[in-house]
């Protein structure tokens, strides 16, 4: 079963009146039922757009599918970032060698300047030449 089929089937379970519409509250429950582990604040941010229109009766299927597609794309990008960091984590310790990482960033196609690399220091707490890349990853995701 592909994602769209799964999302449609799940939406139908919440669309009790068969109108192609579910409440914003049910939308939050539906997102959680699909295994998305958002905090209440994150869910409120996600469905905020549906609260803007006071005349809105709920969330339509196509809007829900659009919402999930945006989340999916964002999640795929996040997963790609994590894979990129794990490339440097040869011992699967959650830590990366700072010098190797900064050297790579300065020699890639889109080279970072020394000033840009020094910005890493704000997010990477280096200890014994290594840093926990989860801190940098979280900072990058917060900036997006």
Task: Provide a descriptive summary of the structure in words.
With 144 residues, the protein is mainly alpha-helical. The chain has 7 helices and 4 strands. The protein has helices spanning 3-14, 24-33, 40-51, 61-88, 98-107, 114-118, 133-143, and strands spanning 21-22, 59-60, 95-97, 130-132. The strands form 2 sheets. It has a two-stranded antiparallel ribbon. A two-stranded antiparallel ribbon has the order 3-4. The radius of gyration is 20 Å and the shape is elongated. 12% of the residues are buried.
The proportion of residues in beta strands is 5-15%
Mean pLDDT value: 81
DSSP helix count? 7
Share of helical residues: 55-70%
Most strands sheet: 2 strands, antiparallel
Q: Rounded to an integer, what's the Rg over CA atoms?
A: 20 Å
User: Which ranges are low-confidence, i.e. pLDDT below 50, for 5 or more consecutive residues?
Assistant: none
Strand line-up across the major sheet: 1-2
- The rough form would be described as elongated
